[in-house]
């Protein structure tokens, strides 16, 4: 009988661990001497171990029947019995684990002995061999646990290898297209998938990769892309489909699907990372779902670093990098580079929108125009936000005529943008310049520069238009622009076609402190329209007219404030006047200011002069003499745009300024940029240590106002604090501000 239970030679190819079931077979022989053969299957009816000299033959389906019986039989070792032949019977017992799942099936073949013609009952055999079945249950449980741990360890190692591969790739200066391709390849190689896809509709990203290394035809995935994208946006979670109950040819393909959402910074779902396998492949499990989620997050990080958050267009760096890669790529047609075109876009009069409705409304306009640009570009085009309200697009394989047609479509679409701010509405127009990408040492920078020149020509020629760059126009455009602006400026200086506006600079903490106002010059056009400083001050600097402009501001400020000396002279408010570096260099300018103060009978304490950091440090000796003279009279000084100069701290100890105006680039970025926030906090602390007060520029929202207060800034200036208004109108309403402050605890008095 011992020879009967020797391992089957046919099973000699199995692993040595399978032979460990032989002792259990011998134990069963001791419990049941009539035993003829033993076979062990796993819970999926796969053979694990068998003894020799017997064959189930046509009764092999007893294993599947035993597993099915275990689903309804609640006994500890559910089993079934089946007669094999005239002198033997098979008893098959299911072995359960700690839960209700079936770990395996043990089948015994018993021979009828002597004069016995009936097989033993199932209950009798179960009771007889139960001790051995209990030992087998423990063995199978241990094997299941070890197998699970090995699988988990193997999956973890593959996942770790994948993450190390992705991390090492970060060190390589690759384009985002290369990084997306790496994410798709990871789904194919590391998770054994047949197809990987990446869809981000807002960014015009639609990529796929098959196991052969080729992309899938886009039209073949359109339906899956639409369904998965909609599902992700509704459910906001990872989707795993391993079993498709019914396949409708017009709805879905017979694939196993693992899809994970791609999210933006605000956690909104913007796309899908999807993996596909045929129905006969292994199921997607929880570990693979976690890996897919990590790859989706990696894709989201690439998008965040390569795309502008407000417009959804590429950043300038990503734009230049992708175009650079495109220009150096080998082409079958060597002249293909000459057919690429650049479009440069600038929004008309965005500064008016910012000053009238606030910069947050201006940001909305930029986003709307960017959408118009993206929607009107052909397939394969690249678009980016270059800076501020300036956008650009590259159209491959396009001549100037075709690119100009695209630009005209963008212009027409932008005119249909009709944003509203409160109760007001305004029109939006854009200027676009078109230029070719030619053969040169730096083709893209040159193309961007020429397209920008064409865009400026569109502005000079009436705005809301498209201009195509022509080499012969460049010098004409620049000369025409300079002469036109400087002529209007000189005419305005001669006929007093200027106006002074005042923008509030109010205390951030509570209602204490004198209100301050910055005086802003505006030039009046032929029809009385307002021309902001950005349109004429650069020409004034180029033609050395800034001292003349500053004299006009000082003279009219002293006259207007002197006419209201009863209110202004009470020390209730202060007014800041900007001075240029050219005025500091003018030896007669200081005398001019002191004479105006005397003739206007205006208390010098009312005025504060703002000097830019660059102008002050560039004229340090004259700046010190200028400040000391006027401070002796009672005037105060503020250092404007503080934080942008490289020598700020080195010279600050030598400058007797009363206020530091924190540059607006730090303030606007403080909510999202921890470095800007730290810079503001450091400036505020430095100012307090040096007995100075701080003013934050561009406080455009309530969120920024609260944050500036928390960072220790004393004053705020911007849309959230108050809009600029004509100085004459303000002086009539100055009593309103007086009612809202408590001068007794004014920090300005302390700083004087």
Shape: elongated
CATH topology of the largest domain: TIM Barrel
The count of strands amounts to 28
Spatial strand order of the main sheet = 19-20-22-23-24-25-26-27
Major sheet description: 8 strands, mixed, barrel
The CATH superfamily of the largest domain bears the name EAL domain
Domains (count): 4
* Rounded average pLDDT: 80
Name of the level-1 CATH class of the largest domain = Alpha Beta
SSE-based structural type: alpha/beta
Percent of sequence in beta strands: 15-25%
Distance between the termini: 112 Å
Q: State the helix count.
A: 26
Query: Uncertain segments of ≥5 residues (pLDDT<50)?
Result: 1-17, 168-174, 247-252, 332-337, 742-752
What proportion of the residues is helical, as a percent range? 40-55%
CATH architecture of the largest domain: Alpha-Beta Barrel
What Rg, in angstroms, do the CA atoms define? 40 Å
Brief digest:
44% of the residues lie in helices and 21% in strands. With 752 residues, it is an alpha/beta fold.
Task: Give a description of the structure.
Helices cover about 45% and strands about 20% of the residues. With about 750 residues, it is an alpha/beta fold. The protein folds into 4 domains: about 10-145, 2-Layer Sandwich (Beta-Lactamase), CATH 3.30.450; about 170-305, Beta-Lactamase (2-Layer Sandwich); about 315-470, Reverse transcriptase/Diguanylate cyclase domain (Alpha-Beta Plaits, 2-Layer Sandwich), CATH 3.30.70; about 485-750, EAL domain (TIM Barrel). A hairpin with a 2-residue loop joins strand 13 and strand 14 (about 390-395). Helix 4 (about 175-190) packs antiparallel against helix 6 and helix 9 (about 360-375) crosses helix 10. The longest helix has about 50 residues, at about 120-170. The chain is elongated and about 135 Å long. It starts with about 20 loop residues before the first helix and ends with a helix. Residues about 1-15, about 170-175, about 245-250, about 330-335 and about 740-750 have low confidence and may be disordered.
């Amino acid at each position: 009988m011992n020879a009967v239970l020797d391992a089957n030679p046919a099973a000699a190819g199995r692993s040595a661990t399978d032979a460990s079931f032989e002792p259990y077979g011998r134990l069963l022989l001791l419990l049941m001497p009539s035993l003829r053969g033993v076979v062990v299957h796993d819970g999926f009816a796969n053979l694990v171990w068998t003894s020799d000299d017997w064959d189930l033959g046509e009764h092999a389906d007893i294993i599947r029947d035993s597993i099915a019986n275990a689903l309804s039989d609640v006994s500890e070792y559910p089993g079934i019995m089946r007669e094999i032949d005239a002198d033997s019977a098979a008893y098959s017992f299911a072995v359960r684990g700690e839960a209700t799942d079936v770990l395996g099936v043990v089948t015994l073949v018993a021979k009828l002995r002597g004069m016995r013609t009936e097989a033993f009952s199932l209950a009798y055999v179960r009771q007889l061999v139960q001790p051995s079945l209990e030992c087998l249950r423990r063995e199978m449980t241990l094997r299941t646990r070890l197998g699970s741990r090995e699988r988990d360890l193997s999956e973890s190692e593959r996942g770790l290898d994948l993450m190390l591969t992705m991390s090492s790739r970060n060190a390589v200066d690759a384009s985002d297209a290369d990084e997306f391709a790496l994410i798709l390849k990871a789904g194919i190689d590391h998770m054994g998938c047949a197809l990987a896809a990446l869809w981000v509709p807002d960014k015009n990203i639609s990529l796929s990769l098959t196991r052969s290394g080729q992309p899938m035809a886009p039209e073949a995935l359109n339906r899956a892309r639409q369904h998965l994208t909609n599902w992700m946006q509704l459910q906001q979670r990872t989707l795993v489909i391993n079993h498709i109950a019914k396949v409708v040819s017009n709805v879905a393909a017979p694939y196993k699907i693992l899809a994970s959402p791609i999210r933006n910074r605000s956690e909104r779902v913007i796309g899908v990372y999807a993996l596909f396998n045929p129905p006969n492949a292994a199921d997607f499990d929880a570990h693979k779902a976690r890996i897919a989620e990590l790859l989706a997050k990696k894709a989201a990080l690439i998008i965040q670093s390569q795309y502008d958050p407000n417009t959804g267009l590429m950043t300038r760096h990503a734009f230049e990098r992708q175009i650079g890669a495109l220009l150096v790529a080998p082409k079958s047609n060597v002249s293909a580079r000459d057919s690429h075109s650049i479009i440069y876009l600038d929004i008309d009069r965005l500064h008016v929108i910012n000053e009238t409705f606030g910069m947050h409304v201006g940001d909305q306009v930029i986003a709307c125009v960017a959408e118009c640009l993206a929607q009107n570009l052909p397939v394969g085009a690249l678009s980016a936000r270059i800076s501020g309200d300036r956008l650009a697009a590259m159209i491959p394989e396009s001549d100037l005529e075709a690119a100009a047609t695209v630009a005209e479509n963008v212009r027409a679409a932008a005119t249909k943008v009709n944003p509203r701010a409160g109760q007001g509405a305004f029109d939006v127009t854009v200027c676009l310049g078109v230029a070719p990408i030619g053969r040169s040492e730096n083709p893209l920078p040159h193309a961007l520069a020429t397209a920008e020149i064409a865009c400026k020509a569109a502005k000079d020629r009436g705005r809301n238009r498209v201009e195509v760059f022509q080499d012969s126009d460049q010098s004409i455009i620049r000369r025409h622009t300079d002469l036109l602006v400087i002529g209007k400026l000189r005419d305005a200086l001669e006929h007093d076609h200027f106006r002074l506006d005042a923008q509030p600079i109010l205390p951030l903490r509570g209602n204490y402190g004198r209100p301050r106002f910055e005086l802003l010059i505006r030039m009046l056009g032929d029809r009385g329209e307002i021309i902001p400083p950005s349109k004429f001050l650069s020409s004034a600097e180029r033609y050395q007219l800034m001292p003349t402009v500053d004299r006009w501001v000082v003279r009219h400020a002293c006259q207007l404030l002197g006419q209201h000396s009863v209110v202004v002279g009470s020390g209730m408010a202060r007014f800041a006047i900007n001075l240029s570096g050219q005025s500091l260099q003018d030896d007669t300018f200081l005398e001019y200011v002191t004479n105006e103060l005397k003739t206007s009978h205006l208390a010098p304490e009312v005025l504060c002069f703002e000097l830019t950091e660059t102008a002050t440090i560039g004229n340090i000796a004259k700046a010190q003499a200028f400040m000391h003279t006027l401070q002796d009279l009672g005037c105060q000084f503020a250092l404007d745009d503080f934080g942008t100069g490289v020598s700020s701290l080195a010279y600050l100890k030598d400058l007797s300024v009363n206020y530091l105006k924190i540059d607006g680039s730090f303030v606007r970025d403080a909510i999202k940029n921890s470095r800007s926030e730290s810079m503001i906090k450091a400036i505020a602390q430095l100012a307090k240590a040096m007995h100075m007060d701080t003013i934050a520029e561009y406080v455009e929202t309530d969120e920024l106002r609260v944050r500036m207060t928390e960072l220790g800034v004393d004053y705020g200036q911007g849309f959230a604090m108050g809009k600029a208004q004509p100085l004459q109108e303000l002086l009539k309403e100055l009593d309103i501000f007086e009612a809202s402050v408590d001068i007794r605890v004014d920090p300005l008095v302390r700083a004087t």
